[in-house]
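Notebook entry, structure prediction.
Reason for the run: the old model in the group folder had no record of what sequence produced it. Starting over properly, with the input documented here first.
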Amino acid sequence: MPPSCPHAVFTPDDSLVVGGHFYTSAHLPSTLEGFNLLEQKQGISNESLEDSHYETLAEIFSSYDKVATPEEVKRVWVTCDLFLGSRTKPRPTTSRPTTSRAKFINSLGDFYNRAAESFSQEPE
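New structure, fully documented this time:
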C-alpha cells in the first residue's frame, strides 16, 4: 500500500496492528503529499506528526539528489511547493513552527535549489 493511502483495519478478533512511515524513493512524493495533508487536516487520521518524522525527512533531503536517479529527483522536486510555499507556517496543532519542522523546510529548500541547478545543466 503506498504512503497516505486511506484505509481501515478490521479484524474479527482482537489484534495488534503495526504501521508507520516508510521512506522509499519510489514513494517520496506521496509521502510529502501525505505529510502536507496531515498538517492541514489533523482530524482525518489517528496518527500525529512527530518531530522525528521531520528530522528523518530533513536527513533524507540533505543528500537525496546525490543518491536518487534524475527522474526520481524530478518527481520529488515538483511536490516541494506543498511546503516551500509557506516556510514559516506553523503546524495546525502548534502555535509556532517547531525546530524540527524548520530544519526539514530548510533541508527541502536546499534540495529544491540544488535540483533546480542540476536541471539547468541538463542538455536540451
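Summary: The chain has one domain: 25-120.
The old model has been moved to the deprecated folder.
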